[in-house]
């Protein structure tokens, strides 16, 4: 292996070319970055459970009637794989999530074969501590992994979905690309659509700008909207529409599990909070006081509590307060959404669409343009489904 030299190296398109899509198979690959994490494990187990008729598709927007005939790939045609730096097998990870109350009792055993098959397709991620490979070498490795997955299963296409732990905001002078950008560069090089469900950099790395502009694939991001920000995107327009003046909007998140540990790092928390605050700024404008504070509470395990305190003025300056509490399991909230996004982006790729997809802003805190209010975002999603239904070209 060649040691990495000082100074960030440019990211080239490279010689790797995407394998021609074989649409005759009718199967779509979903390649999770962070494939052994809670979200990916829940998504794989959930997809198998819904396909087998063991559970209804609760939380999957793509399974409600307006999207039934948009040509989205059926759940039973999805094939899973991914990258991860962890080595806990998916069946064991699913057992751990059962013990934590995320997966229902008996599900891990019922879908063991599907979990084991997906685990066979997980490849080592990186860079790991002490990894001497350059950015370019890592991108080549990840690109080869994607191409091999597509070839082994004769897949029509592979969608890369980033669900790994949140990275700190990148240092512009850092000699290396963030890991999320390495995976995103590999997706572009392999001709794979890309979804960034995290606040991490991904395709937004300046070094990837040329490759993103030249890449003929659809992509969507970033940072999935699963709880607190989902509620904010509904409530903030209400204050505007009722002409109520919001003076301050503060929030607290109590998190356990891997998210809590990751976001205990102030730099990672800052990356996460940027998307949460954007919803309010886009809807209410600048000048609203308040921030979001994140606490790591390991005893909560896979669960989280999000509390918001909204101070606003009513008629004749009367002071009023709204408080909300959201308690839930983030991986169970996120898993159906990443399955939705993989299906939408795969269909967009099949229909010949490329570039950022603002129509999918319904799913994100920091979307690729479009409206900030959830109702308007859902209208855009419905219009997108109509476009896909009509062929999109």
Helix/strand layout:
Elements: E1 28-33, H1 38-51, E2 78-84, H2 90-99, H3 107-110, H4 112-120, E3 122-124, H5 135-152, E4 157-162, H6 179-189, E5 194-196, H7 209-214, E6 218-221, H8 228-241, E7 245-255, H9 257-263, H10 266-284, E8 292-296, E9 303-313, E10 319-329, H11 330-350, E11 355-356, H12 374-389
Parallel strand pairs: 1-2, 1-4, 2-3, 4-5, 5-6, 6-11, 7-8
Antiparallel strand pairs: 7-9, 9-10
User: What oligomeric state is this?
Assistant: single chain
CATH class of the largest domain: Alpha Beta
Q: Helical element count?
A: 12
CATH architecture of the largest domain: 3-Layer(aba) Sandwich
Note the run of SSEs as H and E: EHEHHHEHEHEHEHEHHEEEHEH
Strand order of the largest sheet: 3-2-1-4-5-6-11
Sheet bearing the most strands, described? Answer: 7 strands, parallel
Query: Roughly how many Å apart are the termini?
Result: 44 Å
- Number of DSSP strand runs: 11
Rg calculated over all Cα atoms: 21 Å
Here the CATH topology of the largest domain equals Rossmann fold
Question: Helix share of residues?
Answer: 25-40%
Strand content: 15-25%
Please, what is the average pLDDT?
A: 90
Shape: globular
The tally of domains stands at 2
CATH superfamily of the largest domain, called what? NAD(P)-binding Rossmann-like Domain
Structural class: alpha/beta
């Amino acid at each position: 292996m060649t040691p990495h030299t000082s100074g960030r190296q440019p990211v080239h398109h490279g010689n790797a070319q995407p394998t021609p899509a074989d649409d005759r198979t009718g199967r779509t690959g979903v390649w999770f970055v962070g494939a052994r994490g809670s979200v990916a494990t829940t998504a794989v187990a959930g997809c198998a459970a819904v396909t087998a008729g063991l559970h209804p598709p609760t939380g999957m927007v793509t399974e409600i009637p307006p999207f039934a005939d948009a040509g989205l790939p059926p759940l039973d045609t999805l094939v899973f794989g991914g990258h991860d730096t962890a080595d806990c097998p998916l069946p064991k990870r699913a057992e751990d999530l059962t013990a934590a109350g995320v997966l229902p009792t008996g599900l891990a055993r019922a879908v063991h074969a599907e979990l084991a098959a997906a685990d066979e397709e997980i490849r080592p991620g990186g860079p790991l501590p002490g990894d001497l490979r350059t950015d370019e070498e890592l991108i080549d490795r990840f690109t080869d992994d994607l191409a091999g997955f597509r070839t082994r299963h004769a897949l029509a296409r592979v969608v890369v979905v980033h669900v790994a732990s949140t990275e700190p905001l990148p240092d512009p002078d850092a000699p290396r690309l963030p890991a999320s950008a390495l995976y995103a560069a590999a997706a572009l090089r392999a001709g794979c659509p890309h979804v960034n469900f995290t606040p991490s950099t991904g395709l937004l790395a300046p070094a990837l700008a040329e490759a993103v502009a030249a890449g003929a694939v659809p992509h969507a991001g970033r940072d999935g909207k699963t709880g607190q920000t989902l509620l904010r995107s509904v409530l903030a327009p209400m204050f505007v529409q009722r002409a109520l003046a919001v003076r301050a909007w503060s929030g607290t998140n109590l998190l356990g599990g891997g998210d809590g540990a990751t976001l205990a790092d102030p730099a990672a928390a800052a990356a996460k909070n940027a998307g949460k605050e954007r919803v309010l700024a886009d809807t209410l404008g600048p000048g609203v006081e308040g921030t979001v504070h994140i606490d790591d509470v390991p005893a909560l395990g896979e669960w989280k509590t999000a509390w918001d305190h909204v101070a606003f003025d009513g008629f004749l300056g009367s002071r009023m307060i709204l408080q909300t509490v959201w308690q839930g399991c983030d991986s169970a909230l996120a898993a159906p959404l990443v399955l939705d996004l993989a299906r939408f982006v795969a269909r967009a790729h099949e229909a010949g669409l490329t570039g950022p997809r603002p129509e999918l802003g319904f799913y994100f805190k920091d979307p690729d343009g479009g409206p900030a209010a959830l109702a308007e975002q859902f209208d855009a999603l419905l219009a997108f489904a109509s476009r896909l239904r009509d062929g999109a070209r």
